[in-house]
Design goal:
With 161 residues, this protein is α/β, with parallel strands linked by helices. 32% of the residues lie in helices and 17% in strands.
Amino acid sequence: MTEPLREGLAPVVGDGARVLILGSFPSERSLVASQYYANRRNQFWPLLSDVFGFDAEAPYEERIDAVKGHGVALWDVVRSCRRVGSLDAKIDRKTLVVNDFGPLLTDYPTIERVFVNGLTAFELFERHVDTALPAIRLPSSSGALPMSFADKLARWREVDW
């Protein structure tokens, strides 16, 4: 049986966004919830809450308001694809369609830096996205990455937000 074609989430971006954080493609849990990084095992929200000083357990809209308030936009490299489960390694590369970043960057010219959450997202961005903005790879916030939270946090704190 062929997996259904899955559609990603719309970008989260506010006026004055300076930074764009890109994942690869939302997990199944994120797609069902229509929320970025909805899987509790993913360390994205704890990482950003430590960097910016907000409550990682706050309701989703409050977390979104907090990151937007710090000039951070969220999106994914992949717009749609077929994938079994949630792992990046299971993305069917023959079916992936990459988001069109041109309109977003035109509408939000204040975005000056792109940070990519993990190796797969970085490789997909480098291979498929044509933009003048360089991408800086951060260690994946995925709980599947065998790296301590403290080491990830140290790397995420090095960033010029």
